[in-house]
Design brief:
Elements (H helix, E strand, L loop, with lengths): L1 H9 L6 H13 L2 E2 L2 E2 L1 H9 L1 H13 L6 H11 L2 H11 L4 H13 L16 H7 L15 H12 L16 H7 L29 H7 L35
Antiparallel strand pairs: 1-2
Helix pairs in contact: 1-2, 2-4, 3-4
């Protein structure tokens, strides 16, 4: 915690503060050579401003590959249950006045600087070729189909859209839950992105759980019938799965 707060304070005026904190954590935790940490070399980089800036440039050129645990940790420090633990820990090592300052600094760091951790679920052929492959400008998408990079590319394409102003890359992490439940099982006929959309799944009912998100991701949330954008089926027929493929979807 003291390590994070040191770099948070040091770079609080920069427009890439969170990335700098991530870079420092990466050096401390994962920057290994031949599976052995070169402690003297790492310390020299962390303690020397010029060396750190040079290393930061290299770090920014490859923000995703081999950094899944790093971004998962930072994500957890920024949101959810572990954020509460993180903020509580601040109070245990600094004064109450400083704790308030660090609390505010940390909470104000933009979520859009966090990269999507990414994993094998995201490489499902149905998901990447039939859905993403038909809604992206492929000329700007890496041929390797590394989803964290693709999601960053998506974000760069839509970040100025007023309707998506609160979107940030890590939110795409829903694919960890979505892909194994939908794409792997070829549940295209009841998929929000499928040919029929959710017309056979959505049964609006106040005070009941939404069957759409429960089926697709296993998430439990109450039906918001009056203000639900899902029931408008705006994503219907987005995925271009071959409609003649009889193996796609369960028989009715």
């Amino acid at each position: 915690m003291a390590f994070i707060l040191f770099f948070l304070k040091k770079y609080k005026g920069e427009n890439d503060t969170l990335i700098r904190v991530a870079c420092a954590l990466y050096l401390l935790s994962y920057s290994l050579s031949n599976k052995k940490a070169q402690s003297k070399k790492i310390l020299s980089i962390l303690e020397n401003e010029g060396k750190f800036e040079n290393y930061l440039k290299k770090f920014k050129k490859n923000l995703t590959s081999g950094k899944k645990r790093l971004w998962c940790s930072i994500r957890d420090y920024k949101k959810g249950y572990y954020k509460k633990i993180f903020l509580k820990a601040i109070k245990e090592i600094v004064s109450q006045e400083d704790a308030k300052k660090f609390h505010r600094l940390w909470c104000e760091l933009p979520m859009n600087q966090i990269e999507l951790p990414g994993d094998v679920w995201n490489n499902n052929s149905v998901f990447k070729e039939k859905l993403l492959g038909n809604i992206l400008d492929l000329t700007n998408v890496p041929k390797s189909w590394e989803l964290p990079k693709i999601v960053r590319n998506i974000y760069n394409q839509v970040e100025n859209d007023d309707e998506l102003k609160n979107f940030y890359p890590e939110q795409f992490d829903i694919t960890f839950d979505f892909v194994p439940r939908m794409c792997d099982k070829k549940f295209c006929n009841v998929c929000v992105f499928g040919e029929k959309g959710i017309e056979k799944v959505c049964i609006p009912s106040k005070d009941k759980y939404c069957p759409v998100v429960l089926l697709m991701c296993g998430y439990i949330c109450k039906c918001e019938e009056d203000n639900c954008f899902l029931k408008n089926n705006i994503a219907k027929n987005t995925c271009q799965t071959v409609k003649k493929n009889k193996s796609c979807g369960k028989k009715e």
